[in-house]
């Protein structure tokens, strides 16, 4: 079950979101950060967001949907080297896959990718760089990000809140009522041509 502070999320993508970004800037000052991240994409589910950032395996699960919003719950955060039991007991079950036999007690990131992820035909890897600009206002978090995948730039804006009614009101305020809510997992799989929806 989701914790009380798990946020509902709404995310859109586009080639040029500058006008909407200006609306965000009028609400609050945007704070910049940069990260390199590796996503593990499963062919059997879109409900698991499993990624590596800052040498930490971070897993979130989609646990609730409400009027087009998605609520994600933090399922695991563990630093590398990752214990084998976290791979077999958390990562693979959350990716909706049977865990493979493991021959180490813990795995560095390169070992996890080369020995566990790449050999599995139901898994794909997406290496991306994010340049994020974040702010908060009126019980809502907002983010504009430039996402670089295979040397191509993609732009995304996300709105998040623990209050779905408040979030829906901001979506309406920004004129996004008829825009598709598309999370990172589904978007990356779509761009890479993985697994028809």
Percent range for β-strand residues: 35-45%
Task: Kindly report the name of the CATH homologous superfamily.
Answer: Hypothetical Protein Pfu-838710-001
Mean pLDDT: 93
Q: How many beta-strand elements? A: 10
SSE pattern, N- to C-terminal: EHEEEEEHEHEEEHH
Terminus-to-terminus distance: 26 Å
Main sheet strand line-up:
1-5-4-3-2-8-9-10
Return the CATH topology. Hypothetical Protein Pfu-838710-001
CATH structural architecture: Beta Barrel
> Would you tell me the structural class of the helices and strands?
alpha+beta
State the share of residues found in helices, binned by percent.
10-25%
Sheet of most strands:
8 strands, antiparallel, barrel
Q: What's the CATH first level?
A: Mainly Beta
Q: Please indicate the count of domains.
A: 1
Radius of gyration: 17 Å
Comma- or semicolon-separated keywords:
197 residues; alpha+beta; Hypothetical Protein Pfu-838710-001; eight-stranded antiparallel barrel
Question: Can you give me a brief rundown of this structure?
Answer:
By secondary structure, this protein is of the alpha+beta class.
